[in-house]
Write a structure and sequence with these properties.
Strands 2-1-3-4 form a four-stranded mixed β-sheet, covered by helices on one side. It has three helices and four strands. Strand 3 and strand 4 form a beta hairpin. By secondary structure, it is α+β, with helices and mostly antiparallel strands.
Length: 88
């Protein structure tokens, strides 16, 4: 298993946010959650980075790659799981 950091930016009542967190939890992928519901600084920073929907996932798999995306993306989550866990 690779060393990694994952941050999930969410908002209250967000179904895609719940689905993303459920996926990560199902596979034991630890993450930090940042709630942007009442935090305009967080929302403004995400918009400045080009994100337009929640959740926003930022990741850094140490020694491999880092990146981010917005929205519940099963394909990206599966690729992230593979990066972190390999063939496990």
């Amino acid at each position: 298993m690779s060393d990694y950091e994952v941050t999930v930016y969410t908002r209250e009542g967000c179904g895609p946010c719940r689905a993303t967190k459920a996926y990560l939890g199902k596979y034991g992928i630890r993450y930090n959650e940042v709630d942007g519901t009442n935090n305009s600084l967080v929302v403004d920073a995400l918009i400045e980075q080009g994100h337009r929907e929640f959740p926003v996932i930022e990741y850094n798999v140490i020694g491999y790659e880092s990146g981010s995306w917005s929205g519940h993306r099963a394909d990206n989550l599966e690729a992230l799981k593979w990066l972190i866990q390999g063939d496990d």
